[in-house]
């Protein structure tokens, strides 16, 4: 491995546990359109992009934009359920102080991601933030990590990725990156 020059972290579930905030917002949005979302279903489809998630939930295409907008609007109501991964955040801060570049590589929506970063007051810890609007393909496609490498100006052996989901780890593997899988306790 080359000299470590950058840390790349996924967002949802890795840097910030957004599971319950997202679950409750989706449940409320789905309910208004006559659909039920259980915690087990959400766990099974966690990490998928919105359209793939809706495909699995059999949500008709004509309701998706309205559900997405509604979920986005009610999401901040559940921010009290957000949990920052303090251990990872401390490590990232230490790396930044030592001169390493820091990056969030997520396929989450830009608006939701930045709203959470601002709520937690951690946006300034990151040199580069990549969101779903910056890529065409969701994980396990490596596009988000390839874009991060390009923007960081690093080679694959100069970065370390932090991920939590199987699809995210697969995306890191597909980009030939070393990663640490964050395990929920």
Structure report:
The protein has 185 residues and is an alpha/beta fold. It folds into two domains: 6-17 and 82-181, Rossmann fold, CATH 3.40.50.1000; 19-80. It contains eight helices and seven strands. Strand 4 (101-105), helix 6 and strand 5 (128-130) form a beta-alpha-beta unit. Helix 1 (19-32) crosses helix 4 (61-74). The radius of gyration is 16 Å and the shape is globular.
State the main characteristics.
globular, two-stranded antiparallel ribbon, Rossmann fold, 45% helix, 185 residues
SSE diagram, text form:
Elements: E1 6-9, E2 16-17, H1 19-32, H2 39-45, H3 50-56, H4 61-74, E3 83-84, H5 86-97, E4 101-105, H6 110-120, E5 128-130, H7 143-152, E6 159-163, H8 166-174, E7 178-181
Parallel strand pairs: 1-4, 1-6, 4-5, 6-7
Antiparallel strand pairs: 2-3
Provide the helix percentage.
Answer: 40-55%
Q: Termini, distance in Å?
A: 29 Å
**Helix-strand category:** alpha/beta
The domain tally reads: 2
The CATH architecture designation of the largest domain is: 3-Layer(aba) Sandwich
- Number of DSSP helices? 8
Q: How do the strands of the widest beta sheet line up side by side?
A: 5-4-1-6-7
CATH superfamily of the largest domain: HAD superfamily/HAD-like
Shape by Cα distribution? globular
Poorly predicted parts: none
Question: What is the average of the pLDDT values?
Answer: 94
- Sketch the major β-sheet: 5 strands, parallel
Binned strand content: 5-15%
């Amino acid at each position: 491995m080359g000299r470590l020059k950058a840390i790349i972290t996924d967002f949802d579930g890795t840097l910030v546990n957004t599971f319950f905030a997202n679950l409750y917002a989706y449940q409320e949005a789905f309910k208004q359109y006559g659909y039920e979302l259980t915690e087990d279903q959400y766990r099974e489809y966690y990490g998928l992009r919105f359209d793939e998630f809706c495909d699995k939930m059999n949500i008709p295409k004509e309701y998706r934009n309205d559900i997405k907008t509604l979920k986005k609007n009610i999401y901040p109501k559940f921010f009290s359920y957000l949990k920052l991964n303090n251990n990872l955040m401390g490590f990232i801060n230490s790396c930044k102080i030592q001169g390493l570049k820091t990056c969030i590589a997520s396929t989450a929506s830009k608006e939701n991601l930045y709203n959470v970063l601002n709520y937690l007051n951690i946006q300034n810890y990151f040199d580069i933030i990549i969101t779903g609007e910056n890529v065409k393909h969701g994980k396990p496609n490596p596009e988000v990590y390839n874009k991060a490498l390009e923007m960081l100006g690093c080679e694959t052996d100069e970065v370390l990725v932090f991920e939590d989901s199987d699809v995210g780890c697969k995306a890191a593997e597909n980009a030939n990156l070393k990663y640490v899988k964050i395990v929920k306790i």
